[in-house]
Amino acid sequence: MAWILIVFLILLGGLIAPFGDLLGTKIGKARFSILKLRPKRTATIVTIITGGFISAISISLLILVSEEFRQRLFVDIPFLQKTLDESKKALLPLQEERKKLEDKINIKEQELNKLKRDVKEFRRGNVVIRRGQTLFIAQVTSNRNIKLDLGKIYNSADRYVQKIVIPSNKGVKNILLWKQSDISEIENVTSKEGNWLILIKSVANVLKGDNFVLVYPELMQNKIILRRGEIITSEILERKELDYKIINAKIKTLLSNTRDKIKLRGSIVNEISTRGDFIKKVRDTLKINQNNKYLLEVVSFQDSKTADPIIVDLNITKL
Fold first, then answer.
1. Cα–Cα distance between 186 and 131 in angstroms, integer?
2. What is the per-residue pLDDT for 10?
3. For residue 295, what are the β-bridge partners?
4. Treating both helix axes as pointing N-terminal to C-terminal, what angle do 244-265 and 278-288 enclose, rounded to 10 degrees?
5. pLDDT computed for residue 26 by the predictor
6. With bands split at pLDDT 50, 70 and 90, how would you rate the model's confidence at 249?
7. What is the pLDDT of residue 61?
8. 3-class secondary structure, 17
9. CB-based burial label for 144 (10 Å; 0-12, 13-18, 19+)
10. DSSP per residue over 264-304, as a string?
């Protein structure tokens, strides 16, 4: 069917084309004019219209005769167009995600380059302050003279950092550089009722002999983290686990869990101090009786606030 239709369209085009050419020639010889155009241009326009007529007849015949052509023209093409539009819409979030990913990659590249520079500085041995290092910690309580107290803290921090960076030059003052917005934030927060901690941190690595150190504050509420006698973590020691290696591992796990727990509560202390030898305490207890299960409890020895040292004791109880 398809090849018959093709042959028919070729023959139809061949028949109509000479007719259009003949019509254009006659119009040209008759000096006929449309819209005040020259006869030659009028003949050209007639020829173009005839070609368009051929195309229109061809398409009409295809629509009438070929069901497949109708399917493609009126169903498939609109469906494909709709699919294309939906694909473009679906592509927009992916393009945005790609841009975000590229931005993250650029940031990571910048951080990597900064790290490389930091490593080079460390190798030279001139770095005395690391980026993000806490330089000074101070406690402040809200009162009427809060600005005066803050000024004393800034001066103390300045003198302390000066001894690290330029210890030989005692005449230098105001080595710390602050953003005015950071100082305003400190004053606004600490003016509120309560106890606060100010952690002064370095923005970048500082080499020995540098004249200035750019810093930023980190404000924290100085709150109670642990109460005296509070059980922080606990672990049951089974009869089958009464081996000193297992006991040692259990105690290490207990202390690690304790450290994680107080960090979650807001403590800024990195190390935990223990009262006495935990292992010896357990051994002495087991010498008396090894036929029981025991409960190990890590207990706070004192009240501790956000920046206070964490001191713990071990309770061992027969179950």
1. 21
2. 63
3. 236, 317
4. 130
5. 63
6. confident
7. 67
8. helix
9. exposed
10. HHT-----EEESS-HHHHHHHHHHH--SS-EEEEEEESS-E
Contact 252, 260 (CB under 8 A): no
The strand pairing partners of 188, in sequence order, are: none
pLDDT digits (tens, 9 = 90+) for 87-122: 777 777 777 888 888 888 888 888 888 777 666 655
Report residue 202 as tokens: 């370095």
User: What is the rounded CA–CA span in Å between residue 19 and residue 10?
Assistant: 15
Mean pLDDT of the chain: 77
Q: What is the pLDDT of residue 288?
A: 63
Distance of CA 267 to the CA centre of its chain: 25
CA distance 172 to 153: 17
Cβ-in-10-Å burial (0-12, 13-18, 19+) of 286 comes to: middle
Backbone phi, then psi, for 234, in 5-degree steps?
-150, 160
> What whole-number distance in Å separates Cα of residue 305 and Cα of residue 194?
13
Closest CA to 27 of 13, 15, 19: 19
Alpha-carbon distance of 128 to 166, in angstroms, equals 10
Global confidence as pTM: 0.50
DSSP state of 243: S
- Cα–Cα distance, 190 to 154 (Å, whole number): 14
Coil, helix or strand for 139? Answer: strand
The counts of H helices and E strands in the chain are 8, 12
Question: What distance in Å separates the CA atoms of residue 232 and residue 30, rounded to the nearest whole number?
Answer: 112
Q: Partners of 159 in the beta sheet?
A: none
Q: How many angstroms separate the CA atoms of 10 and 15, rounded?
A: 9
Polymer length in residues for the chain:
319
- Half-sphere exposure of residue 242, counting CA atoms within 13 Å on the CB side? 19
Q: Which residue has the tokens 């694909």?
A: 87
